[in-house]
Write a structure and sequence with these properties.
The complex is a heterotrimer of chains A (426), B (296) and C (309). Chain A is an alpha/beta fold. Chain A has 2 domains: 162 residues, Periplasmic binding protein-like II (D-Maltodextrin-Binding Protein, domain 2), CATH 3.40.190; 206 residues, Periplasmic binding protein-like II (D-Maltodextrin-Binding Protein, domain 2), CATH 3.40.190.10. Helices cover 41% and strands 10% of the residues of chain A. In chain A, the strands form 3 sheets. In chain A, strands 6-7-5-8 form a 4-stranded mixed sheet. In chain A, strand 1, helix 2 and strand 2 form a beta-alpha-beta unit. In chain A, helix 7 crosses helix 8 and helix 16 packs antiparallel against helix 17. Chain B has a domain of 172 residues: MetI-like fold (Orthogonal Bundle). Helices cover 67% and strands 0% of the residues of chain B. Chain C has one domain: MetI-like fold. In chain C, 71% of the residues lie in helices and 1% in strands. Chain C has 13 helices and 2 strands. A two-stranded antiparallel ribbon of chain C has the order 1-2. The longest helix of chain C is centred in the N-terminal third of the chain and has 40 residues. Classes of the chains: A alpha/beta (426), B mainly alpha (296), C mainly alpha (309). The interface between B and C is large, with 108 and 107 residues.
Chain lengths: 426, 296, 309
């Protein structure tokens, strides 16, 4: 046989083989889309076990969304109507997916389900699952309020006072300046695995903390009012004036806080699981509620959760699956994995949480900090949100120009405001 | 041609000088090859080194190049990571390659021959369309294509990754082979035509064997492309049992923790067969093709 | 080889044309079918989307040329991202082709162990992207990166490779050239296809290595060079993944490539209609330049076996 003939024969054979694998789809089943994270895996298992016990005839098909590339998978599946019955969702998708009718409004189901107590879930957190206060499009996974992680070893080495619940941002800046001068290390970690400087959950609390708002009563952007500018200026000052924030071009080879080069990180409870996976622990760390602004304590929130997709053949069946995420059972499992903080008020004092092994020693700070959590400013119209689209883009560019010193905060924000309002107004 | 220099009259001296020059030249070639190898090997070295580091050591500042403590068990831990099945995914990837590659080679060279050697109305237009098909950024055709495969009932099967390759094997492969075929002297096919050979015979008996270096390049790039393809499997394959290796690599990326140590371990394992393929395939590349015998 | 005269008798051609046409389409049949089935539909769909307000999660709504008008009038990032892409494309075309061709010449020298060396040189494309991106972040690091360590050792100032808007784009070019092994592989194949007797003949004529390179190698390789120039150009205009992974378009949009812009519009902003319009504008630019490249190629690309000029 000539080599060419052999190639042909091989081709024909393999072609048949390659196309011979198709999966059947007859049994009653429910598709469950989720992520493969060590901290989330236990929750996935719990949800599946619970559901299978309740509905023995229904098979659960798990579909992982590998990697960070959630968006291209979801948008494609959403466009074609092939989303799984139960989908993994994060706060940033709630509004566009709800407005597009891709995810189901679970509010009626939650209200009519006697085994489910919506009022036990912290109200401010539920705001992340609603569109401007309406509906219920995602069951959140955890009371994910942005809290302050700090490198206790570094504070002590620099002789800086340890964070306390009554700290103001001035106290924070003073301690950080001490650290910067004594050790050369930065304080406010950003990028490198953490969110970047333009994360609304860092920036908007500064705006509100100075009495400002990004949007006016008329729905137009208000980036240049005195209060808003004062808040944004205070935020940018961490890079420009005091220099305590990790510079945008400082690449620590990873997460600056995790590698021990930044003294603090403002992030959600699940970050504990990453820190605890370092063995041996490279430094002592703890958590504290966020410092106060002139107008009080404000901080952002951001969580993942599960939702019932509009494709679900039987939404009430999918609801039975999803609702278990907010059960005491699942919440305690999440918390004991250091993957989150219980979102049920009834578990607030639960010994299983309060007595969790340190670090962090001050784990209750997550719950105490909860009430400081605010929602992302809602912009009506079709110009995007603080997560994506033109509004996010304009604000990000203005912040970047201010932080890098290419422009003053006032000038940069004036341009952003003009561009946003041109879009909103016409 | 350029100015001629007269050959040296002293043949012995000339030979000696030539040999010395040749040795010097060889030395320079080796020096360049070794320096170049070091520069181009950098990613591999860093990847292998990182695959042996502990998760804590990866997260230190400033980063180390070589591990302080070597952890071979990273490989076993990565291979047996939660919810993964790398054995199955290796098999899936090989299956896709095996079912795709013959289609790419056969149909791309067939089409390339048509574009390079046959005269017929519409040839230029179709060649233009083939090239144009790669000019539209793929992000915007992703959704229509996905909907097409959905309507064909091909989602979560290997069909979307295999079948299109049997229709021309990719525009760039056709273009590449066409360029090679246009370089082959026409005397070869004219002689064969006189002997009564059809175009199909000329393609199969003359062009396929002669374009071996180009076909091997096409093979390299196709296998490598499938081996590392992430977006296609990500979009079309939803059940974990249908995953490919490149997709499986992303199972180490979680919400809060990305296991870089495991990513590097599996990457290292994934690179090994590619290295073997490159070395083995090199042996089959004929060093240039000699046409003098055919010309005479 | 004699070229067919322009006034070749027409009737004789027509007599064979049906048979020739059928034969031709039998050969290119696979790709013709492939284009009709897999490509035209999606392309037409995206052309339609470009005339709509299509937010993916809602059905497309026809708006005529609204997206195009917005693109050319109010979108400040359109010009910025196009300019980044054009500047990158020019730098990459020049540097990439020269380096790849020189490497290919080195890799076709007849020395022992070449198969191994070639594999080493191809390594950057074998290694998965995740590892490459990590490596370049490390190499380019302004504080502990080895490149700056070398610069400082020889008394030069360190460069803020990825962190400064002045150098970030060029850093991307260097990285792309380094990962340009595909171009090198194709040059190697092209060099191997050059008949050795041509080199031998030139050697007998007394041409030295450099003269032979320009008198024999370059003309004989011109179809391969042409291929690499065209595909390199198309590829460089669609480049964005490393920028997406390493700089996210920054700082100050200095690496905000056109396709990164399209990706963000499509998958982050969920504005598929607008993204499709952007894609079609790029498509037309790429096509226009490619047509020019093909027209100009008649003057410098030499096909040994062609009766076309």
């Amino acid at each position: 046989m000539s080599p060419q003939k052999r190639l042909l024969a091989l081709a024909a054979g393999l072609f048949m083989l390659g196309v011979g694998t198709v999966s059947a789809q007859d049994v009653t089943q429910i598709r469950f889309g989720t992520v493969n994270d060590p901290a989330v895996d236990r929750v996935n298992q719990l949800l599946i076990e619970n559901f299978e016990a309740q509905h023995p005839g229904v098979e659960v098909i798990v579909e992982y969304i590998p990697g960070a590339d959630l968006v291209s998978t979801y948008t494609t599946q959403a466009a074609a109507g092939t989303l799984p019955d139960v989908v993994f969702l994060a706060d940033l998708y709630v509004v566009p997916f709800a407005q597009g009718g891709i995810v189901f409004d679970m509010q009626p189901l939650a209200e009519s389900d006697e085994s489910f107590d919506l009022s036990d879930i912290y109200d401010n957190l539920l705001g992340l699952s609603r569109v401007n206060g309406e509906g219920l499009y995602m069951i959140p996974s955890s009371y994910d309020v942005v809290t302050m992680y700090y490198n206790q070893s570094m504070f002590e080495e620099a002789g800086a006072p340890l964070p306390s619940p009554d700290w103001t941002w001035d106290d924070y800046t003073a301690a950080c300046t001490t650290i910067l001068e004594a050790t050369g290390n930065y304080c406010f970690a950003n990028g490198g695995g953490l969110p970047t400087f333009d994360w609304w959950a860092w920036m908007v609390p500064f705006v509100q903390g100075y009495g400002g708002s990004l949007v006016g009563e008329d729905g137009m952007a208000t980036l240049t009012t005195d209060e808003t500018l004062a808040g944004l200026q205070a935020y940018v000052n961490m890079w420009t004036e005091s220099g305590i924030a990790q510079p945008l071009d400082f690449d620590a080879g990873g997460n600056c806080f995790l590698v021990g080069e930044c003294a603090t990180a403002f992030f959600i409870p699940g970050f504990m699981s990453a820190l605890r996976s370092l063995e041996p622990q490279p430094f002592e760390w703890n958590v504290e509620v966020v410092p106060s602004h002139p107008e009080g304590k404000f901080t952002g929130m951001g969580t993942y959760g599960f939702a019932v997709s509009a494709n679900a053949q039987d939404p009430s069946l999918a609801w039975d699956f999803v609702k278990h995420l907010a059960s005491a059972d699942a919440q305690l499992a999440i918390a004991s994995n250091y993957a989150g903080t219980p979102l049920l008020a009834s578990l607030r004092e639960d010994p299983a949480i309060v007595n969790l092994e340190a670090p962090p020693a001050n784990i209750t700070a997550f719950i105490q900090n909860g009430e400081n959590g605010i929602l992302p400013t809602f912009f009506p119209g079709e110009c995007g949100s603080l997560y994506a689209g033109q509004i996010a883009q304009e604000i990000k560019d203005a912040l970047e120009a201010s932080i890098l010193g290419f422009s003053s905060v006032a000038d940069a924000m004036a341009i952003a405001e003009e561009n946003i309002n041109r879009c909103l107004g016409g | 041609m350029t100015t001629l220099t007269r050959p040296s009259l002293n043949a012995h001296a000339h030979n000696h000088q030539a040999r010395r020059q040749k040795q010097l030249g060889m030395g320079a070639v080796y020096a360049l090859l070794i320096i170049g190898s070091l520069i181009f090997m950098m990613p591999l070295i860093i990847m292998v080194a990182t695959s042996f580091k502990s998760f804590s050591e990866i997260n230190t500042y400033p980063p180390t190049i070589l591990p302080n403590v070597w952890l071979p068990e990273n490989y076993a831990n990565a291979w047996n990571y939660q919810n993964t099945n790398f054995t199955r995914w290796t098999f899936n990837t090989l299956l896709i390659i095996a079912a795709t590659l013959p289609g790419v080679i056969l149909t791309s060279s067939l089409c390339a021959y048509g574009f390079a050697r046959l005269e017929f109305p519409g040839r230029k237009v179709w060649f233009g369309l083939v090239l144009a098909s790669v000019m539209l950024p793929p992000q915007v055709t992703l959704i229509p294509l996905y909907i097409l495969f959905y309507n064909l009932g091909w989602l979560n099967t290997f069909y979307p990754l295999i079948i299109p390759a049997w229709f021309g094997g990719g525009a760039l492969n056709i273009f590449l082979l066409r360029q090679f075929y246009m370089q082959i002297p026409r005397e070869l096919d004219e002689a064969a035509t006189l002997d009564g050979a059809s175009h199909f015979t000329i393609w199969w008996r003359i062009y396929m064997p002669l374009s071996r270096p180009a076909l091997i390049s096409v093979t390299f790039l196709t296998v490598l492309g499938i081996w590392n393809d992430f977006l296609g499997p990500l979009i079309y394959l939803t059940s974990p049992e249908n995953y490919t290796l490149a997709l499986g690599l992303n199972m180490f990326q979680g919400l809060f923790i990305t296991r870089t140590d495991y990513i590097m371990a599996i990457s290292t394992l994934m690179v090994l067969p590619m290295i073997v393929m490159f070395i083995v395939a090199q042996r089959y590349v004929v060093q240039g093709f000699v046409t003098s015998g055919l010309k005479g | 080889m004699t070229a067919i005269p322009a006034n070749f008798p027409a009737p004789k051609r027509r007599r064979h044309s049906w048979r020739k046409t059928i034969e031709g389409y039998l050969f290119i049949g696979p790709v013709v079918l492939g284009l009709i089935i897999w490509t035209f539909g999606p392309m037409i769909a995206s052309a339609y989307y470009s005339l709509t307000d299509y937010r993916i999660v809602q059905p497309p709504e026809f708006i005529g040329f609204g997206n195009y008008i917005e693109l050319f009038t109010t979108d400040r990032l359109f010009i910025q991202s196009l300019s980044v892409t054009v500047r990158y494309g020019l730098m990459f075309m020049v540097l990439g082709q020269i380096v790849s061709l020189l490497l290919a010449v080195l890799l076709t020298q007849k020395v022992r162990g070449m198969a191994i060396f070639r594999t080493f040189f191809y390594m950057p494309i074998i290694v998965p992207y995740v590892a490459s991106a990590l490596l370049w972040r490390y190499l380019y690091n302004k504080d502990f990166g080895p490149i700056n360590a070398v610069l400082q050792a020889i008394g030069l100032d360190p460069i803020n490779w990825l962190g400064s808007p002045e150098s970030s784009l060029f850093s991307m070019v260097i990285m792309s050239v380094w990962t340009g092994a595909v171009t090198t592989i194709i040059y190697v194949a092209g060099l191997q296809q050059i008949p050795e007797d041509l080199h031998d003949a030139a050697k007998i004529d007394g041409a030295n290595a450099v003269q032979r390179f320009f008198a024999v190698t370059i003309p004989m390789l011109s179809p391969t060079i042409f291929f690499n120039v065209v595909t390199g150009f198309i590829g460089s205009f669609q480049f964005f993944v490393p920028a997406f992974l390493m700089t996210d378009g920054g700082p100050i949009k200095s690496t905000y490539f056109y396709n990164l812009n399209i990706y963000e519009k499509a998958f982050r902003w969920l504005e598929m209609g607008y993204a499709s319009a952007m894609a079609w504008v790029l498509f037309i630019i790429i096509m226009a330049i490619t047509v020019v490249l093909f027209r100009v190629s008649n003057r410098w690309v030499y096909y040994e076996g062609s009766n076309e000029r």
